[in-house]
Amino acid sequence: MKNLLSTLVALFVVVNLSQAQTFSIGTSAVYGDDIEEAGFNLRGMVHLDKHIGLVAEYTTFHQHDEIAHHELEQKRLWEINLNAEYNIHLLKHLGIYPLVGLNYSHELEDIHELTGAETHSYTAQNHDSHHEINSFGMNLGAGIHYELGHFEPFVEYGHLFSDLPQNVFSVGLMYHIGNHHHKPHTKHKHHNI
């Protein structure tokens, strides 16, 4: 499943980049309130016109460790997003955008039983359990960005509706490749003398 999704995302990016006049690549620091950990995000955007962009993203979060009732619970989470954004210019360089899209999340959860005397030293016995959750869902959110030449810092919020719901906050930077103002081509007429 992971290899299939990675292949589909790569195919999506390659096909659209080959047809687009401009595209962007970027990264961001993220925080997820359900896993309660920070992480990082890699993304690529295809600009269909000056308003609409299609974004493919990969996000991974740091491992979350929690001790309760003499058990150590460890969670790891990564996700893939395919979003559409609609850019609304407020000022010359400042804009906001709503976003909507699809999400695939993969969470790993390991639970280790700890010895009572050594709970705080993370000494685990062999009574372990392992769970994997694969979930599809929908993203809904919004962001604000500011253009600085080919660079574009942004702040973004997204909510995930799925079996692994959470709010995700992002602060990052995009880099535009090509004509990021995306002016339409004009045809020149030739007159016969």
UniProtKB/TrEMBL annotation:
Residues 31-176 form the Outer membrane protein beta-barrel domain. Residues 1-20 form the signal peptide. Pfam families: OMP_b-brl (PF13505). The keyword Cytoplasm does not apply. Keywords: Signal. This is Outer membrane protein with beta-barrel domain. It comes from Sediminitomix flava.
